Amino acid sequence: MEVTMMQQFGVIGLSVMGKNLALNIRNHGFSVAGFSIDKPEVDALAKYEDDKLKPTYSWEEFINSLEKPRKMLIMIRAGKPVDMTLEKLTELLEPGDIVIDGGNSNFNDTNRRFKKLEEKGIHFIGMGVSGGEEGALNGPALMPGGDKEAYDKVSPILESIAAKTEEGVPCVAYIGPEASGHYVKMVHNGMEYGIMQIICEVYDVLRTVGNCTNEQMSEFFEKWDEGQLHSYLTEITSKVLKQRDDLADGYIVDKILNVASYKGTGNWMLEDAIKLGCPITVIAEAVLARFASKATLRDGCMPEFKGKVDLNQLITKLANAYYLASAVSYAQGFQQLSMAAKEYGWNLHYPAIAQTWEAGCIIRSSMLKDIENAFNQDADLPNLFKDKYFNDIANKYTTDLEEIVKLAVEAGIPIPTLGAAYSYLKTIFNPKLPQNLLQGQRDYFGAHTYYRNDRDGVYHMEWYTEK
Ligand SMILES: NC(=O)C1=CN([C@@H]2O[C@H](COP(=O)(O)OP(=O)(O)OC[C@H]3O[C@@H](n4cnc5c(N)ncnc54)[C@H](OP(=O)(O)O)[C@@H]3O)[C@@H](O)[C@H]2O)C=CC1
Ligand SMILES: O=C(CO)[C@H](O)[C@H](O)COP(=O)(O)O
């Protein structure tokens, strides 16, 4: 009698991410079934079929191939497709089954779906996944949130497929209840937007003020990647800059249209920052810079630097400015996480979150170890720059950031994130902000009241006599 082997895990959606995650799971010794509504995607997976990898061609075949309680990952386009998939799954699943949504879903959607599936006894995990195509296959960073009980049942698979830190720790940690996992991924992506835009501005200063060639810039980023600026984004920037065009002469970076696209996770972070009142200025500028790249009139004069600089000094200052501005992007991300945790009642463990990002993901960098250390020393750190290491780098590098900002202004180069990082640092360490005047204005026109800096209580000034 033929015995049908049941699969330990299932993956729905076999595009770049889903297919590679299915292969990663199989490569780690777990049996996996794959399904997509798109038959060619299943056919592509079928090329790897073996006793641990089963392509399936219908919802029923997929569901019936899974061991109970069923454990599965949805890896499809975020938004309506996820709702449609969950609707189909609720017809077929049983209480106790576990569904993970690994796409970049909006955390508000995840909260809604979590509650809806909970009513049916189905466990729902909203899980951020980072690492792109390559990470999905060889080790992504995973940010699961939802039922802890359900997480414990899938954690052996997740820990096994995740990237590992230098110390061998899997880049996956249970984040917390409800949509906290997708929230953390959203913040990851916001910081990613921030650091990517910072790098673009560094590139702009290098090419305009430093008059550097693509090959030179590529070498600088390569060199930086060997030091404290070591990060995935530094590394790939070096590679992007030196890539030759495959359709014409020259470098591909000079042919790529300079209009930024986005799928919107950074935008969502900004939306929630506004709701929470969180000053994520660098990330906000990075989101807006993508919009601005579409809105530009393109008919003004090109940035031009007429002064003289010592290239070696420029490189050193730029490296320091890049490092410090990246620290601001991370600091703002963690600030939003702590404000969200309070607002939504989540007990987030910041060292574990930093550790999850140390390998496998797009924002991995050597700075994340310093962030992990900072939160290990003080779990309630109100701002990363309160930590000694980050306070020291702010003291050490703010002058260089300031000089880069001045050079960029002199050359007419827009520096929304470098400028925002500078202003943020000048704000958080400033005991003499000018918002006393703003409070006076508000009280003048709207009787909005103000606090005083010399005595307790709430005050209102009779600014003028009624006519
Ligand atoms: N690409 C990346 O680097 C990363 C992506 N992600 C996230 O992972 C998820 C998957 O990403 P990726 O692999 O790039 O693929 P896409 O985001 O391009 O989504 C394509 C997949 O979604 C499926 N799909 C679309 N509509 C439906 C529907 N109505 N019902 C069922 N399936 C549907 C597609 O099937 P069909 O071909 O039939 O349309 C295909 O399998 C997304 O949420 C993405 O944001 C997360 C981290 C990194
Ligand atoms: O999640 C990701 C990386 O971490 C995805 O690549 C995402 O699409 C990036 O965001 P955007 O498309 O808005 O640039």
From TrEMBL:
<dbReference type="InterPro" id="IPR006113">
    <property type="entry name" value="6PGDH_Gnd/GntZ"/>
</dbReference>
<feature type="active site" description="Proton donor">
    <location>
        <position position="192"/>
    </location>
</feature>
<protein>
    <recommendedName>
        <fullName>6-phosphogluconate dehydrogenase, decarboxylating</fullName>
        <ecNumber>1.1.1.44</ecNumber>
    </recommendedName>
</protein>
<dbReference type="InterPro" id="IPR006115">
    <property type="entry name" value="6PGDH_NADP-bd"/>
</dbReference>
<keyword id="KW-0560">Oxidoreductase</keyword>
<feature type="binding site" description="in other chain">
    <location>
        <begin position="130"/>
        <end position="132"/>
    </location>
    <ligand>
        <name>substrate</name>
    </ligand>
</feature>
<dbReference type="GO" id="GO:0004616">
    <property type="term" value="F:phosphogluconate dehydrogenase (decarboxylating) activity"/>
</dbReference>
<keyword id="KW-0570">Pentose shunt</keyword>
<comment type="pathway">
    <text>Carbohydrate degradation; pentose phosphate pathway; D-ribulose 5-phosphate from D-glucose 6-phosphate (oxidative stage): step 3/3.</text>
</comment>
<feature type="active site" description="Proton acceptor">
    <location>
        <position position="185"/>
    </location>
</feature>
<dbReference type="InterPro" id="IPR006183">
    <property type="entry name" value="Pgluconate_DH"/>
</dbReference>
<comment type="function">
    <text>Catalyzes the oxidative decarboxylation of 6-phosphogluconate to ribulose 5-phosphate and CO(2), with concomitant reduction of NADP to NADPH.</text>
</comment>
<feature type="binding site" description="in other chain">
    <location>
        <position position="193"/>
    </location>
    <ligand>
        <name>substrate</name>
    </ligand>
</feature>
<dbReference type="GO" id="GO:0019521">
    <property type="term" value="P:D-gluconate metabolic process"/>
</dbReference>
<dbReference type="InterPro" id="IPR013328">
    <property type="entry name" value="6PGD_dom2"/>
</dbReference>
<keyword id="KW-0311">Gluconate utilization</keyword>
<dbReference type="GO" id="GO:0050661">
    <property type="term" value="F:NADP binding"/>
</dbReference>
<comment type="subunit">
    <text>Homodimer.</text>
</comment>
<dbReference type="InterPro" id="IPR036291">
    <property type="entry name" value="NAD(P)-bd_dom_sf"/>
</dbReference>
<dbReference type="InterPro" id="IPR006114">
    <property type="entry name" value="6PGDH_C"/>
</dbReference>
<dbReference type="InterPro" id="IPR008927">
    <property type="entry name" value="6-PGluconate_DH-like_C_sf"/>
</dbReference>
<feature type="binding site" description="in other chain">
    <location>
        <position position="290"/>
    </location>
    <ligand>
        <name>substrate</name>
    </ligand>
</feature>
<dbReference type="GO" id="GO:0006098">
    <property type="term" value="P:pentose-phosphate shunt"/>
</dbReference>
<comment type="similarity">
    <text>Belongs to the 6-phosphogluconate dehydrogenase family.</text>
</comment>
<feature type="binding site">
    <location>
        <position position="448"/>
    </location>
    <ligand>
        <name>substrate</name>
    </ligand>
</feature>
<feature type="binding site" description="in other chain">
    <location>
        <position position="104"/>
    </location>
    <ligand>
        <name>substrate</name>
    </ligand>
</feature>
<feature type="domain" description="6-phosphogluconate dehydrogenase C-terminal">
    <location>
        <begin position="181"/>
        <end position="464"/>
    </location>
</feature>
<feature type="binding site">
    <location>
        <position position="442"/>
    </location>
    <ligand>
        <name>substrate</name>
    </ligand>
</feature>
<dbReference type="Pfam" id="PF03446">
    <property type="entry name" value="NAD_binding_2"/>
</dbReference>
<keyword id="KW-0521">NADP</keyword>
<feature type="binding site" description="in other chain">
    <location>
        <position position="263"/>
    </location>
    <ligand>
        <name>substrate</name>
    </ligand>
</feature>
<dbReference type="Pfam" id="PF00393">
    <property type="entry name" value="6PGD"/>
</dbReference>
<feature type="binding site" description="in other chain">
    <location>
        <begin position="188"/>
        <end position="189"/>
    </location>
    <ligand>
        <name>substrate</name>
    </ligand>
</feature>
